[in-house]
Write a structure and sequence with these properties.
The chain has about 250 residues and is α+β, with helices and mostly antiparallel strands. The chain contains five helices and ten strands, in the order E-H-E-E-H-E-E-E-H-E-E-E-H-H-E. Strands 1, 2, 3, 4, 5, 6, 7, 8, 9 and 10 form a ten-stranded mixed sheet that branches. Helix 1 (about 30-40) crosses helix 2 and helix 3 (about 140-145) crosses helix 4. The protein starts with a strand and ends with a strand. About 35% of the residues are buried. The model has no long low-confidence stretch (mean pLDDT about 95).
């Protein structure tokens, strides 16, 4: 039995999310599991570093599976990429790992990026890949607000209903807001996140960046530890799973 770690890129637009489920749209997990079965003739279960929601994209999702088939790394990568067609999924790399490696539980950090396009004109080809904000956002104010969230805190203000985490207390290691022309990138890192935490943080940062809230009001909303006090949950289309660190 060999354990394989794969790094995956995918466009989440046409998927119901990462996790296999009964839905009209396929899941990323289902498509890749079926591809592995097609070349190995073995039923497998794929475990991911992070289970992305419907519409969320990935630039470097990590996952693992076990098979008995004796095969080399290049062939694993090429075989999966052959069988996942025509879905917009690509295996960037495949490598053998030790049996104690686990894509989810071995990860010490998960990295996400959220893309906002801040302009008046509507989006065209970027519509499914970024959040459109037509009013002005001040990225410097957003960064000041973001700095308040760093460290170990109760993140209940950004915790969606249905979150299965045992505690709302998390440690946020990094939260950077940068602008390049009309694009605002929000990059964040932590060992783990609450359900919809990133999208809820972005929505609340936009309240500060648009100056609808002062920084004091932003701080009050955060420390209230109450989801109803936070900003809106922004769309999944602007969120990217960048990668996991082990």
């Amino acid at each position: 039995m060999t354990r394989w770690k794969i790094t995956i890129e995918y466009d989440g637009t046409d998927f119901c999310g990462w996790q296999r489920q009964n839905a009209a749209k396929p899941s990323v997990q289902q498509v890749i599991e079926d591809a592995v079965t097609s070349f190995s003739a073995e039923n497998v279960t794929l475990f991911a570093a992070g289970r992305t929601d419907r519409g969320v994209h990935a630039k470097g999702q990590a996952a693992h599976f076990d098979i008995d088939k004796d095969i080399d790394e290049h062939t694993v990568e090429e075989a999966i990429n052959f069988y996942v067609r025509p879905f917009r999924v690509s295996i960037l790399s495949a490598e053998k790992v030790t049996e104690d490696f686990h894509a989810r539980f071995s990860a010490v950090k998960r990295c996400y990026e959220y893309l906002i396009i801040n302009r008046k004109a509507p989006l065209t080809y970027q519509k499914n890949y970024a959040l459109h904000v037509p009013y002005n956002l001040d990225e410097k104010i957003m960064q000041e607000a973001a700095d308040m969230l760093l460290g170990n805190h109760d993140f209940s203000t950004f915790r969606a209903s249905g979150c299965q985490a045992k505690s709302p207390v998390k440690t946020l290691d990094r939260l950077d807001v940068t602008r390049v022309d009309d694009k605002i990138y929000i990059y964040t890192e932590a060992r783990s996140f609450l359900y919809h935490q990133v999208r809820n943080m972005v929505g609340t940062l936009c309240m500060a960046g648009s100056e609808k809230w002062t920084l004091s009001q932003f701080a009050d909303a955060f420390h209230a530890a109450d989801r109803t006090k936070g900003g809106a949950t922004v769309g999944a289309e602007g969120l990217y799973f960048i990668g996991a660190r082990y």
